[in-house]
Sequence to fold (240 residues):
Amino acid sequence: MTWKQMFTSSIGQKFVMALTGLFLISFLVVHVGLNACIWANDGGKMFNAGANFMSSMLVIRIMEIGLFAGIIIHTIQGLVLTAANNSKRKIGYQVDYGNRGSKWYSRSMGLLGTLLLLFLIMHIYHFWVPSRLGGIGGVEELKKTHYEGALAAQYHDLYAKMVEVFHGSDWSLLIVILYVLGCISLAYHLMHGFESAFRTIGLHNNRYLKLLRFTGRGFAIIVCLAFAMMPISMYLGWVK
Ligand code: HEM
Fold:
């Protein structure tokens, strides 16, 4: 398959969706694991140490470029596939099998993906932009609180930023609701996407289909529940 076919044939496009999707799933595993450190309830010491260690590694910085490229390619290819599917079937089926034919969320991947994109834009504005482009003035504060010496000069207090966003602003309740809605969209998107990606790259057979489906749904529920509980825990003051 040539590069052109990869991005133009329908099987090539599905393949691109699957590979970028699996890459984004691997990012989610690291992200949820690192963020779970907030539940150490130590004022963010463990979480900040992990987050700052990661962002100080060159390999992570390079992967970050890959991550954003992955998000962009996955989004554009997804929109192209959704538009192509919609244009092929202008007149709906005469008999509507509803959820018996396929689940609503597998038929709504474009919509769920778009909601996720909106969530991601808000999310990146909240954390990535201030962290990478300046704006988290944690250095002096951190010297006073958790870290000392030269190391502190490189630290960003992302934890304090999270508390500010999810607990300390007039908009916190609305933001927490939007985050929970984002996590619900992600859960349904993954519910189909996880299984579908493995099927597309051929890593399945009839014998293991049930196991794959079970793993995909379990992954979607556990990861998204953990993500959703983070802003909720902060809003309710369970972690401070
Ligand atoms: C709901 C709970 C979540 C919290 C509290 C949270 C928190 C954070 C924080 C603090 C950062 C900044 C990290 C840094 O700059 O070093 C970040 C970055 C990011 N998050 Fe999340 N996140 C959550 C959920 C998600 C979800 C569900 C997704 C994907 C669908 C996601 C995707 C991203 C991306 C793409 C970045 C930028 C990547 C990077 O920093 O390299 N996050 N998140």
Remarks:
- The chain has a mean pLDDT of 86.
